[in-house]
Amino acid sequence: MAKSPKPLIISLCIIAALMFGFTFALIPLYNVFCSITGLNGKIDSKFPEQFTRTKIHDPTIGERRVVVEFDTNRNATVPCELSATQALLQVIPGELAHTTFRVKNLSDKKIVIQAIPSISPGHVAKHLKKLECFCFDQQTVEAGETKDLPLRFWLETEIPKNVHRLTLSYTLFDVTARTKEKGT
Amino acid sequence: MSSIAIDPPDHPIDHPHGPKPGLLRWVFTTNHKDIGTLYLWLSLTMFIVGGSMAMCIRAELFKPGLAFFEPGFFNELTTLHGLIMIFGAVMPGFVGLANWMIPMMIGAPDMALPRMNNWSFWLLPFAFTLLISTLFINGPAPDFGWTAYAPLSTIYGPKSTDFFIFSVHLMGLSSIMGAINIIATILNLRAPGLTLMKMPIFVWTWLITAFLLIAVMPVLAGAVTMMLMDRHFDTSFFNAAGGGDPVMYQHIFWFFGHPEVYIMILPSFGIMSEIIPTFSRKKLFGYTSMVYATSSIALLSFLVWAHHMFTTGLPVIGEIYFMLATMLIAVPTGVKIFNWVATMFRGALSFETPMLFATAFLIMFTIGGFSGLMLAMVPADYQYHDTYFVVAHFHYVLVPGAVFGIIAAVYYWLPKWTGHYYSETLGKIHFWLSAVSINVLFFPMHFLGLAGMPRRIPDYALEFADFNKIASVGGFVFGCAQILFLLIVIRTIRGGPKAPAAVWEGAHGLEWTLPSPPPYHSFTTPPKVY
Asked: Which of B58, B231, B258, B446 does the annotation list as catalytic?
């Protein structure tokens, strides 16, 4: 049985290389999977095309209201305070809601922050659509400055009937060092 | 495999190609037995190093309060203990056994790729020097647990994390090359007539393990590469601030990590399937079902990774899927356990040391399997997660499972390797010390976990004091018993009653047709197997 092992070895090496590549392919796959299923509280932050097609106000919904609570956290290293100006909002599905968040720079340096949103329960995430959010961009806050940041969103009328309350949470990260290195 | 008739092969008595004289023999060797020996010594060395760390951990936990170490150093100990035992003791141990036994079991002269074999071994001492050196350089050693979760290992990782990353790369490279070599040997160098379904089960389990290694070691390499890039090249794979996700690290890690636990147990299953028939003096019950059970365990292992992550906030439907898929693995595992028991049933049993370890494996691995089933249940796991119950579970499957497997294999094949029988009395003392102390060590951990003691802590609430004390005493006895094992091995190498070619009267297979110790090149002319 002295056949050459070369083709076998080459194919085994290819399997190993493909699996290495597969690990990196998992990153986009994971994000696509999360945004399709709305798992992990991830939301599509791009302007949704179906906005024009969704009924903004559906009279059949009547007086149904969903409570949206706002929660803010900051990564321990951020010298910034973030708070929602309203702790919660009663939102009628299909209607546009507007609120602001206040950010205060506690340090004596200009910092750049990035807020990362998350929605709980996760399966509702796909029904929360944002028109405008301070989390879409990095925000520059001057030393000692206090700033109001806008959030405009609506809940789709298709939001499951048993959802009466949801939490929109923002975690604040300091990305100053990151933006400096990129030269912006 | 008693149905296989074997032509006695001829072996030239004065073989011209002996080993090179001197110490350089070990550096340049391409011989499967030399490399197997190197792997086994590395494994034993790492077992002692990782074991000393475990002794330090148990000493710190002997009573409440901080006695010896700062909490930071305690974290370094648990991290390095895990990494060294998994990648340094268990995996090289099995690769060493594969190197020694596979060519002899399939009637080959050597491994298919001898030079690569040398390289894949010699990467390991460097990998572990790199890893262990972190204890002696300035700043903390890796302290995030062997799982290296982001952001503990990325944003908050100490500088030495880079040493950890490169040592994991080296270990991965070594394992992948080792696995390619083993597959090439098994598929290309079998003796004429030795079809796949006639191979010894040890060879089968290693073939499947090697495929698992090739599939998942690159995934671990990818995960630590991303970690490296997050640390130094401003990427955000796992950094939420840049749009990444730390939970994804856990998904990638456990996609590697779950098959990894089967990498550490399947060769042990193979060893049991050699030892139990020998000392039961019967054929292995259900050979074919053993092969299929092993393969299905390997396939299922790719589909259950998130059962390590039930508390990360998976959707309910995901948790239910991962719970059921995990429980499904109990079916092929049960097939194997029942097959071993059926092999022993009405056999002419005798309990030499390898058989004692095999029997202990059977019982204690089953205990570990059952606590695994408990952990697989989502509602229960919310309570057990990250407690000492998990520690008890994986130590029950890894120590009496993987480690007892290696020890049993060493006792079983040591007379073949050295040409000398070990001392049965000392072997039995070693067994009883180990088997009793291991239960004193790990069984109380179940209770600690159920009572709520978290894992990876240097200090604990007073109500956990008694069980921790018992566990520590068991730990010290178990540790000392392994020194006895080292002495037994050295003693057997240096001398002892001469062993014949067929070391055990009930054993069947090609390796027992070679003299003990076997010639430097195993089968220069392939034997015929009918």
From this structure: B258
State yes or no: is B120 an active-site residue: no
Which range of residues forms the domain containing residue A15? 1-37
Check whether residue A32 and residue A79 sit in a common domain. Answer: no
Q: Return the number of CB contacts < 8 Å for A and B.
A: 95
- A99 bridge partner residues: A151
* Same-domain pairing of A33 and A72: no
CATH code, domain with A135: 2.60.370.10
Contact A8 B237 (CB under 8 A): no
Q: Are B184 and A173 within 8 A, CB to CB?
A: no
Contact B248 A26 (CB under 8 A): yes
Are residues A153 and A127 part of one domain?
yes
Q: Please give the helix or strand (H or E) that residue A173 lies within, else none.
A: strand A165-174
- The reply to whether A100 and A58 lie within a common domain is yes
The structure's pTM equals: 0.84
Measured torsion, CA atoms of residues A90, A41, A141, A48, in degrees rounded to the nearest 10: -80
Contacts of A180 (CB under 8 A, 6+ apart): none
**B381 token code pair:** 């796991």
Q: A176 in contact with B at a CB cutoff of 8 Å? A: no
Subunit contact B247:A40, Cβ cutoff 8 A:
yes
3-class secondary structure, A140: strand
| Tokens 């996700």 sit on residue | B245
Distance CA A124, CA A93 (A): 12
Contact A180/B at CB under 8 A: no
Contact B513, B9 (CB under 8 A): yes
Look up the ipTM and state it.
0.84
Note whether A103 and A178 are same-domain residues.
yes
- Whether residues A48 and A75 share a domain: the answer is yes
Contacts 24+ apart (CB under 8 A), B318-324: B318/A39, B319/B378, B320/B378, B323/B376, B323/B377, B323/B378
Q: Could B241 and A174 be called an inter-chain contact, meaning their C-beta atoms sit closer than 8 Å? A: yes
* Cβ neighbours, 10 Å, residue A128: 22
pLDDT tens-digit profile, chain B (530 residues): 444 545 444 544 445 567 777 888 899 999 999 999 999 999 999 999 999 999 999 999 999 999 899 999 999 999 999 999 999 999 999 999 999 999 999 999 999 999 999 999 999 999 999 999 999 999 999 999 999 998 999 989 999 999 999 999 999 999 999 999 999 999 999 999 999 999 999 999 999 999 999 999 999 999 999 999 999 998 989 988 777 889 999 999 999 999 999 999 999 999 999 999 999 999 999 999 999 999 999 999 999 999 999 998 888 888 999 999 999 999 999 999 999 999 999 999 999 999 999 999 999 999 999 999 999 999 999 999 999 999 999 999 999 999 999 999 999 999 999 999 999 999 999 999 999 999 999 999 999 999 999 999 999 999 999 999 999 999 999 999 999 999 999 999 999 999 999 999 989 999 999 998 999 888 888 888 87
Q: B454 has which bridge partners?
A: B387
Local structure of B103: helix, strand or coil: helix
Please tell me whether residues A177 and A90 are part of one structural domain. yes
State the smallest CA–CA distance between residue B130 and chain A in angstroms.
Answer: 23
Structure tokens of A24? 């990196």
Sole residue written with tokens 């490399």: B35
**How many structural domains comprise chain A?**
2
Do A122 and A107 belong to one domain?
yes
Hunting for tokens 């790199």 — which residue is that? B130
Among A5, A23, A75, the residue with its CB nearest the CB of B218 is: A23
Distance from CA of A142 to the nearest CA of B (A): 19
Active site residue B245: no
Whether B43 is catalytic is no
